[in-house]
């Protein structure tokens, strides 16, 4: 089944068969905050997800596809106040600017911000929950980035 130049696959990707390689640049930290290994973890999860869910080969440069990402926000905000004007929940949000370049089809190029968050009870500190929340947020961001670049639903 071919629709235009897109090819359907059971992994959910709609990548053209002429696309063979991808360069995933190391994620850059463009804001303060977050665990020391945040950019490394994010980069590795992106690479792993593309390798597992596409037939694209990773290439250090000059690939058919290019993915550049910068973490532009690592924010803790109060959510839903209690009757005593204290936050009942806190929200950890990670925002990432992504630049995607398709060397074979410039119409698919974009620069876009992705964000995702997880809430946690105000009785807990960020340092208590960061280790469990950050991986969940990164997993969802990776999925959202993948969907916009490889699945394009």
Automatic annotation (TrEMBL):
What cellular component terms from Gene Ontology apply here? outer membrane
- Set out the biological process GO terms recorded for this chain's protein: Gram-negative-bacterium-type cell outer membrane assembly
What protein does this entry describe?
LptE family protein
The organism named in the record is Emticicia aquatilis
Which lineage is the organism of this entry classified under, starting from the top rank?
Bacteria, Pseudomonadati, Bacteroidota, Cytophagia, Cytophagales
């Amino acid at each position: 089944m071919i629709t235009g130049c897109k090819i359907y696959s059971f992994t959910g990707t709609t990548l053209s068969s002429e696309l063979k390689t991808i360069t995933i640049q190391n994620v850059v930290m463009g804001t303060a905050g977050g665990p020391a290994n945040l950019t490394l973890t994010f980069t590795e999860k992106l690479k792993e997800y593309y390798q597992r869910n596409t037939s694209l080969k990773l290439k250090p440069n000059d690939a058919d596809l290019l993915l550049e990402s910068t973490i532009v926000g690592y924010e803790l905000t109060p959510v839903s106040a209690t009757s005593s004007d204290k936050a009942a929940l806190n929200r950890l949000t990670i925002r990432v600017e992504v630049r995607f370049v398709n060397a074979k089809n410039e119409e698919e190029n974009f620069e876009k911000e992705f964000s995702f968050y997880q809430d946690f009870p105000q009785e807990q500190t960020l340092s208590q929950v960061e280790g469990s929340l950050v991986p969940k947020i990164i997993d969802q961001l990776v999925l959202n980035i993948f969907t916009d670049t490889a699945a394009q639903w």
